[in-house]
Write a structure and sequence with these properties.
This protein has about 300 residues and is of the alpha/beta class. About 40% of the residues lie in helices and about 15% in strands. It has one domain: Alpha-Beta Barrel (TIM Barrel), CATH 3.20.20.70. The longest helix is centred in the first third of the chain and has 14 residues, at about 25-40.
Amino acid sequence: MERLIIAVGLNENVTRDQNPNVPITPKEIAADIAECVEAGASIIHVHCRNPVTGEPIMDDPDGYLELFRTIHAEVDALVYPTYPNGEKVDRYKHVKALMEDPASGLEIAPIIAGSADLTPPLELARAAPDHDWLLHMPLPDLFYQLALAREHGLFVSHDVMEPGGLRTVISLFRDGQYVHPVLLKFFMSDRMGFGFPAEPQYLDVWSGLVPSDFDGEWLVLPYGVDYAKSMALWRRAIELGGHVRVGVGDSPAVVDGFLPTNAERVAQMAEIAREMGRDVATLADVRARFATALVPA
């Protein structure tokens, strides 16, 4: 896809102390998404939050149904949720509820591509010596989630943190497990223990691992990476024909002395893309790209 997809990590688990611009309530989230779409974003990742305390809500069906109904009453956008760690089908119950509710407007199935080591810097890990830092994604969960995506005709957005996860996705693709083109999100961090370092030469490795017969798109997601390193990754992704994810949820840090909003980060990326010779994909462009029905092998 020649036009650049700008995705947004809207809020994750970021607190107002980290960035006062992070949206928390359903109405704030819907308004923030509308501003992002206006600025050029087409895909939004969102976490439900307790509207009073701001605490993350990872897997509550009622909370996510209310959130997604509120969003789609306000704005047309491709929005998808998170889901928690674990090894049980129960972790996906809220996503299944969104799939089964037409009013939710869910079009994307979020699916983690494989288990990954999320160990933070050792000083933080030592403060929680009994914590399990492994992101669990056993094959039974993977197959269950893919089956639901096929049943409901959704396209899949894969969190890809390790090369082995990408190789698994490629095998699944060749096995006919997808009904639409696939979105690969290459997570890169310089603080956590998974995958490749957050440097452009390793993004070249990621993109080089995607075979020519794979029908999909990829983006780079700098997670908790400082602004200068993130910008280098985003620019390299644009040069390579990939796509980008920005957002307060992924990195709430100060940029040039101020705390930007999600929409400001989207607008900045759209301007950079055009300066580099790529137009920005519209919502219609992205829907058309991923609506294609794959021909079974």
